Amino acid sequence: xxxxxxxxxxxxxxxxxxxxxxxxxxxxxxxxxxxxxxxxxxxxxxxxxxxxxxxxxxxxxxxxxxxxxxxxxxxxxxxxxxxxxxxxxxxxxxxxxxxxxxxxxxxxxxxxxxxxxxxxxxxxxxxxxxxxxxxxxxxxxxxxxxxxxxxxxxxxxxxxxxxxxxxxxxxxxxxxxxxxxxxxxxxxxxxxxxxxxxxxxxxxxxxxxxxxxxxxxxxxxxxxxxxxxxxxxxxxxxxxxxxxxxxxxxxxxxxxxxxxxxxxxxxxxxxxxxxxxxxxxxxxxxxxxxxxxxxxxxxxxxxxxxxxxxxxxxxxxxxxxxxxxxxxxxxxxxxxxxxxxxxxxxxxxxxxxxxxxxxxxxxxxxxxxxxxx
Length: 373
Hints:
The protein is an alpha/beta fold. The chain folds into two domains: 8-130 and 319-363, Medium-chain alcohol dehydrogenases, catalytic domain (Quinone Oxidoreductase, Chain A, domain 1); 134-290, NAD(P)-binding Rossmann-like Domain (Rossmann fold), CATH 3.40.50. It has helices spanning 50-57, 125-128, 131-145, 162-171, 188-194, 207-214, 228-234, 260-271, 275-281, 290-296, 298-313, 330-338, 366-369; strands at residues 9-15, 24-30, 38-47, 69-70, 74-82, 94-98, 108-112, 116-118, 153-156, 178-182, 198-200, 219-224, 238-246, 284-287, 321-326, 345-349, 362-363. Strands 3, 5, 6, 7, 8, 15, 16 and 17 form an eight-stranded mixed β-sheet that branches. Strand 10, helix 5 and strand 11 form a beta-alpha-beta unit. Helix 3 (131-145) crosses helix 4 and helix 7 (228-234) packs parallel to helix 8 (260-271). The longest helix has 16 residues, at 298-313. It is globular. The N and C termini lie far apart (48 Å).
């Protein structure tokens, strides 16, 4: 075959099997072509999420999918090619995209046009990839499930992560909201700057006692990304008519590889939710899964995305990018997330420009805040 007809290849991060860091493999794939209703996107940035850790360890995949497959649930870039029937996008458009069937951690991704959205020139690609999982989840949890209103109070678990950062900023779009947030002590100054009213060091302080000392009757909304015993205990600080929304299982992650005992313990603690206690205490417990919502109500997800971009343009929200890593640094980036060292969003890019003599990732403030990074 002549050189001009050689098949185009792109680099992707593939999950070779469930397990440790060595299961994340950078390799070449055939460049995808869009089918009817799809676009291909030249990827400029990919979002990393805690759910990617669940996927790698085999704790949970959205559609029960088994490796090998290309990882990633969100990306941003430039439309490369448009499939038949697509009217909303054209080649050259700047877009953010999401897919819970994975495939986003690639130099070129093939995506249904229904899960893409235009982004303004004022929004960087790195900021854009913070929107689909973190900010859309935060918005739906606070306003669709939580019905957040003026003068209420919210407890945000893991307030320094990508989701916690988004929840905090969206709480501040409502007047007089008191926000409790758990995070390691070295992150407290910056989460307060983001809007947290009461920062709680979960390593040294019982968050239940700390919340009760400031709000004896409890809080109106709890955003739980931890699960397990923390999910059960958090109900002690929920007001009557309060809403507890469960969005993650990060307590199942304790290291590089899955611990079956840890996972079973967290699952068992979650299983034993008492309907009698919920009724007696006038509590609502909700579960949120962005993937299944995207499948069953894609219109609502698109509506929220449009509103979030409007809030961004109005200066009311702004994602914080903790650090940017190349595909070849995916293991280092993953370790940072496993160790809970990030403040805000971790981002992957296909290739990163490096200054001579500077092999370190592009970071924003985190190196100063945590000297161990």
